[in-house]
Amino acid sequence: MYRPQRRTLLKSATVGLMGGLGLGLAGSVLAAGKIKPASNSALIVVDVQNCFIEGGTLPVNKGAEVVPIINKLAGAFENIVVTQDWHTQGHASFASSYAGKKVFETTKLSYGTQVLWPDHCVQGTDDAALHKDLKLPTAQIIVRKGYHKAVDSYSAFEEADHKTATGLAGYLKQRGIKTVFVTGLATDFCVAWTAMDARRLGFEVYVIEDATRGIDLNGSLAAAWKQMTAKGVKRVQSADFELA
Ligand code: VGL
Ligand code: ZN
Fold first, then answer.
1. Pick from 39, 60, 112, 169: most CB atoms within 10 A?
2. What architecture is domain 2-21+38-234?
């Protein structure tokens, strides 16, 4: 019987003898000191959709650059989760839904302050489709979020009302996943909220920084890293991984 836990310990011990590199990092490290995700790890690919890339409705600066990096990382993971921002028309997060409101202003909704965005990622449109160059043939589940008209959902785990679950935590837990590596768009919104919720829900969490790009609205990117770090989210780079 294959026992990943035991193999991991042996590998890490070897690494320890060879120079004390990265013991315990992601539960599995090769001799070179690189991260090799174990069978109980998952890659989460957040919102790599046309809407968030140049030519889309809410483009993230240099968003397309994450695509080849994520495609390459995917080969190192046995488990891959993909998310899609998936709004109704006239969604509560759209500035166009309010008379006299402009894009990037905020409003108060029942669950708190909501940033108002351009209309984006409307269900079933090309804008909401995954980017055509994203190649994740082994991905196991696509989680859509933000489909309740009155509630936004940056996080892949829980809607912005802080009550409604998407079901992703249950899915991951039932599959025995303990560690998640978060990538995608945008670093300071959906990636950060997903990573912080994952911590709160008991997962070990890494954000692979160069596999993300931020919107950076009024300093939101630096603020997001500060909050993520405070919550125990670890920051790594794609070069830290053992890739084919
Ligand atoms: C996102 C703003 C609005 C994201 C989604 O994917 O980060 N940002 N909707
Ligand atoms: Zn959205």
1. 60
2. 3-Layer(aba) Sandwich (3.40)
